[in-house]
Amino acid sequence: MCMPTRMALAALAFLVLTPGAEAQRESRPSGTPSLHADLPVALVDTPLRITVSGLTPQQLFRVSATSRTSTDRALISYAVFRADDVGGIDLSTAKPLEGTYSKPDPMALFWAMSPQPVPVEIWDHLDLPPFYPPNPWTVLVEVAPERGGTALASLRLVRLYAAPGLRKMDLREAGLVGKLVLPAQGDQNSRIPAVILLGGSEGGMEDADASLLASHGYAALTLAYFGVDGVPSELVNIPIEYVLQAVKWLQARPEIDRGQIAIIGASRGAELALLTASVSSAIKAVVAISPSSVVWGGISKSPEVRAVSAWTYEGKPLPFLSAKAPPDLMQEFYAKGPLHSRLYDYLFSDRDAVKQTIIPIERIRGSVLLISGAEDRVWGSPIMARQIVERAMQFGRGGFFESITYDGAGHNIHAPYRPTHGQARLGGSAEEHARAERDSWQKTLAFLERTLIAPK
């Protein structure tokens, strides 16, 4: 393969995503086409304005975006637009006539990307480094005739997970395993608030989100509690004291404001975050994404291991609610989602078991933000978020809890403007999930600002 880069990418996006494309003819504009972005290099959570000019008025053109995955597949999105009366397209307002998304959205070229297999040798001719967060993400945007052919203009955009000057250090002390990311050096006499990040049942660490939070001025500690060297290999009998030790470690650091510490947890990490905050007055704020209202069992790699708790406290396993249910209820849950199935009515029908396993969120002294997707197909996070708020109100703590449930969103709600193609497996649609990520991230940053910084 030796075609020029711009032509290669336009042809790649067109042929991969358009049936019968090779039989269609090219039509060229009469002007001098060009692509523009107001922020060619910016943090990944920063929205852009992308425009095209110099096209033939009222003709159809295809705008595509391409990047490279860590496994050398191509991430591709596209949309077909009709140029306006002066030969321009503004992706903020123009409605796609067809493509990988359907509504005006300047950031859809990013979240609507999906992986496509391509000949691996194509990367010998294209300067596109693999997309592997938290490394910079390079995206090539091109405009071409609607019916295919050579790219008329191209634009290379770089999306950053880390602002310049971030300081990173691996944590392997005090029995802890993680990575601390600090903002660029500022006033050495000023202490900064800290956020602990807890991932879900995948284990490991949340490197990308830690870098992004540090880029917004927080000390971000991504803490591994299982699944990597130095911590348990399975989500089984994890001591809550492990996170409490991380809190003490942060408080002892000279750059940290010891009174301004938050925890962000997702899925099983949200369960752990709420449990930790219920036994520690040091936690000023909690963001629980796809949360749980009760303790669930551990996840063992060995099918022979009997059911055990995921967590311990003061040396004792915490009682946990059984997730076993009849097959028909499980099928109904996966088909209809948590809000339209009977599964969680069944799982919570044993009141005595629920009473023993419920997370005592009324003991949390800080503020709590709950984020869930109405189409969560992993577990009933919107139902459990509602239970958490109801319990908070029963104990006079309702004013400290805020819950947001997004229609059409699934389980893994993260920072915005990243490809959401895989979310359909976990519930919801790519478009609605992208909307939820955009809104929830803005609300998360505002929540952290309000709870950790504004009180000063």
Overview of this protein structure:
The chain has about 450 residues and is an alpha/beta fold. The chain has 2 domains: about 160 residues, Immunoglobulin-like, CATH 2.60.40.2240; about 290 residues, 3-Layer(aba) Sandwich (Rossmann fold). Helices cover about 25% and strands about 25% of the residues. Strands 2, 4, 5, 7, 8, 9, 10 and 11 form an 8-stranded mixed β-sheet that branches. Strands 12-13-15-14-17-18-21-22 form an 8-stranded mixed β-sheet, sandwiched between helices. A 3-stranded antiparallel β-sheet has the order 1-3-6, with no helix packed on it. The chain starts with a helix and ends with a helix. The N terminus is likely disordered.
What are the SSEs and their pairings?
Blueprint: H1 5-17, E1 34-37, E2 41-43, E3 50-53, E4 60-69, E5 74-82, E6 89-90, E7 98-99, H2 108-111, E8 114-116, E9 130-131, E10 137-145, E11 153-160, E12 167-173, E13 176-182, E14 192-198, H3 207-215, E15 219-223, E16 238-239, H4 241-251, E17 256-266, H5 268-278, E18 283-289, E19 311-313, E20 316-317, H6 327-336, H7 343-347, H8 351-357, E21 367-373, H9 381-394, E22 401-406, H10 430-453
Parallel strand pairs: 2-11, 4-9, 14-15, 14-17, 16-19, 17-18, 18-21, 21-22
Antiparallel strand pairs: 1-3, 3-6, 4-5, 4-10, 5-7, 5-8, 10-11, 12-13, 13-15, 19-20
CATH level 1 name of the largest domain: Alpha Beta
CATH superfamily of the largest domain: Alpha/Beta hydrolase fold, catalytic domain
User: Which fold does the CATH topology of the largest domain refer to?
Assistant: Rossmann fold
* Cα separation of the termini: 60 Å
Mean pLDDT: 90
Mind describing the biggest β-sheet? 8 strands, mixed
Q: Approximately how much beta-strand content do the residues carry?
A: 25-35%
Q: What's the helical proportion of residues?
A: 10-25%
Please mark out the parts with pLDDT under 50 across 5 or more consecutive residues, or reply none.
Answer: 1-11, 18-27
Radius of gyration: 24 Å
Based on Cα principal axes, name the global outline.
Answer: globular
Which architecture of the largest domain per CATH?
Answer: 3-Layer(aba) Sandwich
| Number of domains as seen in the coordinates | 2
Secondary structure tally: strands: 22
Instruction: Note the quaternary state here.
Output: single chain
